[in-house]
């Protein structure tokens, strides 16, 4: 007896909790995916047994109030304002193993806006590293190329300088060389390269445009025309004739 009473109490508490949850739900959220309370699914139904299988799968499912099977058009009509179209279609697909198409209502797909990440800044860093042979220069070059963001590495043995271009951080580059290559490096020069070529090209374009647009205005009254060959103004016209 005490066990039955405890079970009944638990059931009553569950029912009360479920009722409270349904009471506090927002009706707009429930009808968002299923505003009309009617779900139309498309699946192949070739006999009465297939229809009974569909009924067993969806009967008593969350929010399902009624089920109609249209075996001629191979459609399943599910009624229920609280029924979720996506969950109902997945339920039928898992239980029957058939292809299920959600005809209506169409699922609401929220567009996810991708945040545009700023383009990395391309820099040129000149490092002071002691290079006493070609082997050292090759080792340093290979070591720096292993760092992410490095584009080009140009070692200069005579000046003990290494020019690195890329999107890496200059201070992290020094730490990477000392940690990975075991060499002491110092930053001699650092400059930004992004946009420099574009600026030069735009400047050259503007100069060419200005040169093309220059118009030389000469006074027309000072222009002297050469005399014609057989005109009266030509003193040698008679001799030519």
TrEMBL record:
UniProt lists compositionally biased (Low complexity) regions at 191-201
Keywords attached to this Swiss-Prot or TrEMBL record, sorted alphabetically, are: Lipoprotein, Metal-binding, Methylation, Prenylation
Membrane-spanning parts: none
Show the CDD domains listed in the entry: HMA
Q: What Pfam family is a match for this entry?
A: HMA
Taking the first listed entry, what is the main subcellular location of this protein, grouped into a coarse class? membrane
Keyword Metal-binding belongs to the record: yes
Q: Where is the composition biased (Basic residues)?
A: 1-12
Q: Where is this region: Disordered?
A: 1-34, 187-208
Topological relation to the membrane, as annotated: Peripheral membrane protein
Q: Which InterPro entries match?
A: HIPP4/7/8/17/18/19, HMA_dom, HMA_dom_sf
- Gene Ontology terms, cellular component aspect? membrane
* HMA domain residues: 36-101, 122-185
Record's SUPFAM superfamilies? HMA, heavy metal-associated domain
One BP term from GO? plant-type hypersensitive response
MF terms (GO), sorted A to Z: metal ion binding
Compartment(s): Membrane
The family line of this record is: Belongs to the HIPP family.
Protein name listed in UniProt: Heavy metal-associated isoprenylated plant protein 7
**Species per Swiss-Prot/TrEMBL record:** Sesamum latifolium
High-level lineage: Eukaryota, Viridiplantae, Streptophyta, Embryophyta, Tracheophyta
